[in-house]
Amino acid sequence: MEDKIRVLLTEEEVNKRISEVAEQISRDYEGKSLHLICVLKGGVFFTCELAKRLTVPVSLDFMSVSSYGDDTKSSGVVRIVKDLDEPLAGKEVLIVEDIIDSGRTLSYLIEVLKQRGPKSIHLCTLLDKPERRVKKQVKVDYTCFTIPDEFVVGYGLDYAQKYRNLPFIGVVEQQ
Ligand code: PRP
Ligand code: MN
Ligand code: MG
């Protein structure tokens, strides 16, 4: 059976907002180079769209930290599925995520990456669901949209690995 998906944020709204945040980041990092860390798999679409709009020099690396598996609820277990290829020493690091929900993924990731000696480490997310936060210490530096507690898909976000390729943010409606 097909899921019913309601549009929460249109492609135009998302792209416009990413451009605004990219401008702000480019201003904040003027004169520096940025090392973007894309958190796979969800962060991949946002990372590309953001990176294309940045006007400072950018390098990219990828990491996969999974906490959900194929379930819609967090298992609470975070594990590294794929580590970075490059060292972080001396780099201006910006972690790029699709969504911050409980904050478990990011609180774990930040702790791990801090120990690798980056010059700075900041966090950028497409979506933030503050109502669901368990790890209150996670500080988000750049947020495109703050959203209510609904199960969202598209723009990298999946429901049992489906719908990542939707060009907008949608809500999976309960049948
Ligand atoms: C999702 C999402 C974030 C994380 C947010 O990833 O992409 O990385 O969960 O949840 P949290 O704040 O409660 O930790 P998921 O583990 O589903 O892997 P995926 O990116 O491969 O879909
Ligand atoms: Mn993810
Ligand atoms: Mg997922």
TrEMBL record:
NCBIfam families: HGPRTase. This is Hypoxanthine phosphoribosyltransferase. Its cofactor is Mg(2+). GO terms for biological process: GMP salvage; guanine salvage; hypoxanthine metabolic process; IMP salvage; purine ribonucleoside salvage. Residues 12-159 form the Phosphoribosyltransferase domain. It is found in: Cytoplasm. Its EC number is 2.4.2.8. Belongs to the purine/pyrimidine phosphoribosyltransferase family. GO terms for cellular component: cytosol. PANTHER family: HYPOXANTHINE PHOSPHORIBOSYLTRANSFERASE, HYPOXANTHINE-GUANINE PHOSPHORIBOSYLTRANSFERASE. It catalyses: IMP + diphosphate = hypoxanthine + 5-phospho-alpha-D-ribose 1-diphosphate; GMP + diphosphate = guanine + 5-phospho-alpha-D-ribose 1-diphosphate. InterPro entries: HGPRT, Hxn_phspho_trans, PRTase-like, PRTase_dom. The lineage of its organism: Bacteria, Bacillati, Bacillota, Clostridia, Lachnospirales. Pathway: Purine metabolism; IMP biosynthesis via salvage pathway; IMP from hypoxanthine: step 1/1; Purine metabolism; GMP biosynthesis via salvage pathway; GMP from guanine: step 1/1. It comes from Brotaphodocola catenula. Its main location: cytoplasm. Gene3D superfamilies: 3.40.50.2020. It is an enzyme of class 2 (transferase). GO terms for molecular function: guanine phosphoribosyltransferase activity; hypoxanthine phosphoribosyltransferase activity; magnesium ion binding; nucleotide binding.
